[in-house]
Amino acid sequence: QVQLVESGGELVQAGGSLRLSCAASGRATSGYAMGWFRQAPGKEREFVAAISKSGGITYYTDSVKGRFTISRDNAKNTVYLQMNSLKPEDTAVYYCAAEYSLFPPRTEGGYRYWGQGTQVTVSS
Asked: Residue 28, SS3?
């Protein structure tokens, strides 16, 4: 019912910044909680950040707290991930996800719809 497309992934230097975008389409999305996950080579997909449908509640994994900010613009059906002070260990494919839920899940199983991912590479 919902299609998600990520964009904005690039090669950046350590200490730099990058903003990822996730555009939703196919169904009304105002009632969806949104999340960002990432997967590095040889590792399992991990939670990064999540935001409630209104944008009033946000969650972050400890490794990105203070560096990453999740936000959304419901008028544009888009969620963003602003990434600052990037580190080589942030290198991964980043995925956005959506679920029709009041509560913003922090696990893969909590989301019904997923994008195809965008590659972020941080050089040292």
From this structure: coil
Ramachandran angles phi, psi of 35, nearest 5°:
-140, 160
> Which pLDDT tens digit goes with each residue over 9-67?
999 999 999 999 999 998 777 789 999 999 999 999 999 999 999 999 999 999 999 99
Do 71 and 79 form a contact (C-beta atoms < 8 A)? yes
Q: Are 104 and 57 in contact (CB under 8 A)?
A: yes
Q: Nearest CA to 87 among 122, 48, 121, 57?
A: 122
50, 105 Cβ separation under 8 angstroms: yes
CA angle 82, 87, 91 (to 5 degrees): 80
